[in-house]
Amino acid sequence: MEDRRVRRTRERLRESLLALLGEKDLRAVTVKELTDRADVNRGTFYAHYRDIYDMLERMEEELFEEFTALLDAYTQADLERGLEPILRDVFFFVDRHAMLCLRLMAGDQENVFFQRLRREIHRRAMEEWGELYGFAAAPDGERQLAFVVSGAIGMVQSWLTDGRKEPPEDMAALTGALILHGIQPRRER
Q1: Statement: residue 131 has pLDDT above 70
Q2: Residue 16's pLDDT is what?
Q3: C-alpha torsion sign, points 157, 163, 165, 169
Q4: Backbone region of residue 106 per phi and psi (left: phi > 0; alpha: psi in -120 to 50; beta: other values)
Q5: For residue 162, what is the DSSP state?
Q6: In terms of C-beta distances under 8 Å and separation of at least 24 residues, what long-range contacts does 88-91 make, across chains too?
Q7: DSSP assignment letter at 188
Q8: Is 189 helix (H, G, I), strand (E, B) or coil?
């Protein structure tokens, strides 16, 4: 178990890194300015991380592990009752980690993190939920699934970059409706 002081120090470092990434590119962030902002000495930083890139990598890994644990909590039986609960949890998760998710969407990190996320969701959906939604048996199931996964991730990214104006519940409902029913044409009145 991590000591409370260590947790607080790591949290200050993380918050400071996210704030700095809001101001400048990762390559421009120095350990000195990070530790100054976090009010931590450089030796403490190096006791936890090799460098700034290592720190961001670990933050990304922790985020990914927490996200996969969220997905693990849902069984096929849960998903038979509907997509909205898992989607709601996903949107609340992203809302809780919005600053880090936004930073991971910027620059080179976007390609790495969101491609990894896309692959993990695609794998799970095909292996664990593919039969439930027909992806596994359909001749074009891989394409259907690619469309659904990319669309769902696109909804999350769009919501994040637009400032998360809608409540997570509303976004989960909209995403679920689009996945299950697609876009319906407007009817003339």
Answers
A1: yes
A2: 96
A3: positive
A4: beta
A5: T
A6: 88/168, 88/169, 88/172, 90/152, 90/156, 90/172, 91/156, 91/159, 91/168, 91/169, 91/171, 91/172, 91/175
A7: P
A8: coil
